[in-house]
Design goal:
Layout: E1 3-4, E2 9-13, E3 39-41, E4 45-47, E5 52-55, E6 71-73, E7 84-88
Antiparallel strand pairs: 1-6, 2-5, 2-7, 3-6, 4-5
C-alpha cells in the first residue's frame, strides 16, 4: 500500500495532467489538486492551487504532538511509481513509507 508521511513538512506532490485513470491504467492521486478522493488523514492537510500539499498545525499542535498526521492511501497498489518533492522545516522530520504492515505503528521494522 502506498503511504506518504510528511510530518513537519510542506509536501509538493507532482502530479501529471492525467484523467482519474488514463488508458495505460495510471491513476492521478491528486485529481483536481485535492487529497480527499485518494487519501485519509488525521492531520490538517491542505492543497493549494499549484498542487502543493501542506501539513499545517492546528491550535495547540506542535512538535511531536502531531506525529501521527500521516497521509494514508485509500487504495492498495500492486505496482506504482510516485514522484514528489518535499520540503522540511529546520529540525523537522519527514519521509515516505510504503508497504506498511501496521498503521498503528507505521515505523515498526
Amino acid at each position: 500500500m502506498l503511504r506518504l508521511s510528511a510530518s513537519f513538512a510542506v509536501v509538493a506532490l507532482l502530479s501529471t495532467a492525467l484523467s482519474a485513470e488514463d488508458e495505460a491504467g495510471w491513476t492521478d492521486l491528486l485529481p483536481g489538486k485535492s487529497i480527499e478522493k485518494h487519501w485519509t488523514t488525521k492531520g490538517n492537510w491542505s492543497t493549494n492551487d499549484d498542487g502543493v500539499v501542506s501539513l499545517v498545525p492546528r491550535d495547540g499542535e506542535k512538535g511531536w504532538a502531531r506525529f501521527d498526521a500521516y497521509l494514508w492511501s485509500n487504495e492498495q497498489y500492486d505496482d506504482f511509481e510516485i514522484q514528489f518533492d518535499y520540503k522540511v522545516q529546520p529540525r523537522g522530520n519527514s519521509g515516505f513509507y510504503f508497504n506498511v504492515g501496521d498503521k498503528a505503528n507505521p515505523v515498526k521494522q
